[in-house]
Amino acid sequence: MNEALVMSEPDAYGVEGAVRLTLNRPEAFNALSEAMLDALEHELQDIAQSQARVVVLGGAGRAFCAGHDLKEMRAAPSLDYYRALFERCSRMMLTIQQMPQPVIARVHGIATAAGCQLVAMCDLAVASGEARFAVSGVNLGLFCATPSVALSRNVSRKEAFEMLVTGDFIDAHTALERGLVNRVASPDALDEAVGALAKSIATKPRAAVAAGKRLFYRQIETGIEDAYALASETMACNMMDGDALEGTQAFIEKRPARWSNE
Predict the structure, then answer these.
(1) CA distances from residue 216 to 26, 89, 90, 222, 227 in whole angstroms, order as listed
(2) Average pLDDT for residues 32-61, to the nearest whole number?
(3) How far apart are the first and last CA of the chain?
(4) What does the pLDDT read at residue 239?
């Protein structure tokens, strides 16, 4: 893994179990080159197998992420190359959703095209008040097809489609209103807001959070009867977990729970 492309910081924000990943191509607005896609996939896969509890994904320099590296994409155009590139990017995006740890996007500056997709694929997002979002490929004659998958699963259909066919930017507060981000903070309070959210997650039982994340995405893509069947099985299994038994007993006894931290 190339540390120059994706930097990893354990116990970030002073929170045990929080890992901060930073896209590190500031001179290119953290555009997702092939090498960066590979580096990010490698880091995410490693974290998925670790005891980490929550991941924060941000960008170095003036932007979160400007999408794919267009210069690299135009260097040797071929259908096979583009198919492989977008398959590679989609695999990385799905890793975010499929890993057991919640992933928080820490967004500042611009998040455009695949960068906006990256925000939408993260489980949670906290944005600086000066952040801006767009799926602007259409301005170059390229409809943001893969970003549309994530975007349309975060905001309403009409709002997503308007962004996709106009390429227009929305600001952070509009992104909050539409459900693309969870919280907006002033630029000087962004890390405080991200750290508070990471801490809130990291203090919860790991097994419950992992099972909940897995169930959340499975049920949301299925019909309501199957969703309830999945949810019922998840809750039944979760109730047999030691931390769940301890948590319910602590509630009954009106005392703080003593988590296993496993």
Answers:
(1) 34, 22, 20, 11, 9
(2) 97
(3) 28
(4) 82
Q: Which CATH class is domain 206-253?
A: mainly alpha
Beta bridge partners of 111: 65, 133
Pair 111, 118: CB distance under 8 Å? yes
User: Are the beta carbons of 65 and 115 closer than 8 angstroms?
Assistant: yes
Pairing of strands 170-171, 132-134: antiparallel
Strand order in the sheet with 103-107: 6-9, 18-23, 54-59, 103-107, 124-128, 183-185
Two domains, one topology: 6-202 and 206-253: no
CA distance linking residue 93 with residue 103, whole number of Å? 11
* Strand ranges (E), 14-172: 18-23, 54-59, 103-107, 110-112, 124-128, 132-134, 170-171
What are the φ/ψ torsions at residue 255 (nearest 5 degrees)? -140, 165
Q: What is the pLDDT of residue 27?
A: 96
Q: Where are the domains of the chain?
A: 6-202, 206-253
- In this prediction the pTM is 0.91
Q: Is 192 helix (H, G, I), strand (E, B) or coil?
A: helix
Mind listing the pLDDT tens digit for each residue in 63-85?
999 999 999 988 988 999 999 99
Q: How far apart are CA 65 and CA 229, in angstroms?
A: 38
Domain 6-202: CATH architecture, name and number where available: Alpha-Beta Complex (3.90)
Among 5, 7, 8, 65, residue whose Cα is nearest residue 38: 5
